[in-house]
């Protein structure tokens, strides 16, 4: 997980609002890339494909992807010795009700924790 970098969640939210949602597409691209890195399979899912399928399926694919990614993030939190946040269902519910930006923020928070944990690991 060497290429994980923490992102400032407040800045991402503000940029998403100011750019009328265009930055949120880039933020989603970054989240998908980070989750691929966390899964240790950088080619697991193309970030562009996630965005396109989410748009084409009117958000149905996004709900599926959010659930699967939330489960993976929970699993990685347990593997790093942290408590699982049990958020996959919360991510789906938030996204279903149009609060995807909150889902992004929660996912980014977990990614930031995993990036922090990765930085604190001793190198041999």
Automatic annotation (TrEMBL):
It comes from the Bacteria. Residues 8-74 form the DUF4234 domain. InterPro entries: DUF4234 (IPR025328). It comes from Lachnoanaerobaculum gingivalis. This is DUF4234 domain-containing protein. Keywords: Membrane, Transmembrane, Transmembrane helix. It holds the Pfam family DUF4234. The chain crosses the membrane at residues 9-28, 48-67, 88-107.
């Amino acid at each position: 997980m060497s290429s994980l970098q923490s992102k400032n969640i407040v800045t991402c939210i503000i940029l998403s609002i100011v750019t009328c949602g265009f930055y949120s597409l880039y933020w989603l691209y970054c989240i998908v890339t980070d989750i691929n890195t966390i899964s240790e399979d950088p080619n697991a899912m193309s970030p562009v494909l996630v965005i396109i399928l989410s748009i084409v399926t009117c958000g149905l694919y996004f709900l599926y992807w959010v659930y699967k990614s939330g489960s993976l993030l929970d699993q990685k939190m347990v593997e790093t010795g942290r408590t699982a946040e049990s958020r996959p269902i919360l991510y789906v519910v938030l996204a279903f009700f149009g609060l995807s930006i909150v889902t992004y923020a929660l996912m980014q928070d977990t990614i930031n924790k995993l990036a922090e944990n990765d930085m604190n690991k001793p190198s041999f």
